[in-house]
Structures are given as C-alpha cells and as structure tokens.
Here is the input.
Amino acid sequence: MMRQTAKKENGMCELSFIIPCYRSENTVGAVVDEIVKECGTLNISDYEIIAVDDCSPDNVYEKLKSLGQDNPSVRAIRFAKNFGQHAGMIAGVQHSRGNICVFLDDDGQCPLDRLGDLIAPLYNGYDVSISEYGKKKQSLFKNIGSVFNGIVANLLIDKPKDIQMGNFMAFKRFVADEISKYKGPYPYISGLLFRSSAKVINVPMEERERSSGGTTYTFRKLVALWSDSFTAFSIKPLRMATIAGSCAAVIGLLLTVVTIIRKLMYPAIPVGWSSMIAVMLVMGGLILFVLGIVGEYVGRIYMSINETPQYVIAEMNNMDEMP
Here is the structure.
C-alpha cells in the first residue's frame, strides 16, 4: 500500500527498466516478457519498461507499441535518427520515474534471472551495481575493444581498477537525476556514473548467449565511443599531450647536443640528411597528434555552443502520464 500511495503522490515507481533498441524486433519481446516474469517472482508490481528505438531499420517500434497495448507499463520512445546506444540510455533515464533504474540490452544476453542479486546492493549502502561477467560472450574484436575501453576508463574517468563495466547495471534515483542533468551532445554513461558516485560494486554473474543476430557495433561506432571516453569527461588527454610534447622537445635537445659533440670529437663523421628527416617526421607526427586532440576538444566545444541535441524524439507511446 505504501508503494501505491507514493506512486500516486509523486509519480514515482519502484523500478525503471531502460532498454536501448536497435535491430531487435525479434528479441525485445522475449526480454520484456522475462522482465514481467522476474518482477512477478520478486513481488514487484510497481515498475515501468522504457524502450528507446534508436531509429532501427526494422519494425521494432511497432513491436514495442504492440507490447504497450498488452501492458501499459511498456513505454516506447522513437528517435528521429540514429544517435547511438548511450543517447538511448540517457533518454530513457531522463524520462524514467523509478527509484531504481536498470540498464539492459535488447538481445537477451543480460541474465534477468539475477535481477534480485543486481539490485540487492542498492539496499545495502551502494549507489551503483554492475554485472561482472567472468568471460564475455562476444567476438575477439569486441573483447579487445572492451579491454582497451577499460584501460582508458581507468586512466581518464577515474574508474576503480577493480570495477568492470557490464551491459546489465542498476543505480539509485539520485544517480539518475545527476545523469539527467547532463546536456552535452556526447553522452557517455560510464563517465556520468563514476562522476556521480564512488559507491560502486560488481555482482558476478554469467552472461547469456545472444538470442539472435550479431552485434550492431561497427568499428566506426566503437571508435566514436572511445573518442567520447577520451574527451567528454576529462582533460587528461590534453595534459598527456603536453607531457608528450615536452618529452619530445627534451629528447630533441639532447640529440642535438649529442650530434654537436660527436661532430666536434670526430670531424670526419658525415652529417647525413636521413637522421634529420627522421627527427622531422617524429616531431611532425607528434605535433599533428597533439593538434588533433586539441581540435577534438575545440570541435566538441563548438557543438556544445551550438546546442547540438543529444537526441531528437519523433514519437512516443504510453508516455502521456509521465510527469
């Protein structure tokens, strides 16, 4: 009775499930059905499912509308164009009303039968709970990308080294509110989570096989995601570029001194152009690298000043009662 009264007074519910959808017409229905089943097992009746269609080329939005007719708790948002998974996640958060928000994928890989274990730490002092898979069931390319992304996160967004990012996570309402405040055009969920709270825990579990199809992350999308992790929430790349430039300048000075001394000691040594060209190429490449990092930051500042949207909503379903 207390949960129902709270819902009527402030529009809140207990759980918000947020599912970014892309090419998942054949899988998202099973995911929604399992959410409903698991909530019944945990005696959770006050929940909502927010599915965000990231301008998918299939009929996933029509599928979501059909699911919403049978279950009003299934709410759907359709983007006007493809903005990426993280834009879908932040859109879901901004339209959610749950005291706890849960991110999960649309392909059935998230072990929803462990939902109770995932949210339990949030009632015991933690603010964010993230699944930890012993071995991810994905391609070698994506495994390498995950390792690289983890290293970058450790260096740039202060992710604890003992915390592993996963595709199945839960967090409290105040964290969701902090995420919702971000208005930049390049949302990066990991950075938003770790700058909101340090009370983060991993919950060991086993990742499932994908229900059907393959990953929708192309190499270009992964590079764009890595770029967001580099520059969206840290100025450390600029500091690293400054250090690299300073080191190169010192090395160049030392090589110049060595060259002069050797020439004075051994006048017969021919001074070739190859060493000079090598130094020029190294220095030129370093300069262009540093300028590229600076340019990336300047470009993002320009996009932010122009108020480039995180996403554009073309249509919504079952969202009329949202506060």
Observations:
- The chain has two domains: 2-218+308-317, 236-305.
- The CA atoms of residues 29 and 232 lie 34 Å apart.
- Confidence is low (pLDDT under 50) at residues 1-9.
- The beta strands are 13-21, 47-53, 74-79, 98-103, 128-133, 169-172, 200-205, 313-317.
